Amino acid sequence: MDENIRLRARQTLTRYLEENNRRKTPERYAILDAIFNMEGHFTLEELGLRMEQDNFRVSRATLYNAVNLFMKLRLVVRHHFLPDVRYEACDLTDNHCHQICTVCGKVQEVGNNSLIAMLNDVKLKRFHPVGFNLYFYGTCSTCQAKISRKKGKKTTTNKNPKK
Question: Which of 9, 94, 139, 154 is 20 to 30 Å from the Cα of 20, by its Cα?
Fold first, then answer.
């Protein structure tokens, strides 16, 4: 992720901790750095493994508490993808869309700028949005091709019944 975004995330965390008289622990900053070094979506288990690879061991509770704090600060977004929960580092101005295959679970980001611009322009009654995530559920082209091949085999088999 962009170094400026990572720096703003650290500044946001520092400001929050100072304003709320909370400790600036090395664990929180190490977890934040690891999150912003992750590519795409990740689970808490994957984050824990990344921390171990970086020779920085933290308990699952510490990971969970830090990620919850980062979500509160909008530094991390939690996604409820099929079949599990995944997380993603985000910029405070980050709005994006995902397409999720209901067959294989593959998740891809949708980079449709006109759709994002349209959603940014939506006016909501008595509500000031700060961001959004949009999910499209369906079948990816790979799974659709597999389904079509299976249907084709069944049709061919049914045309030539055994005598």
Answer: 94
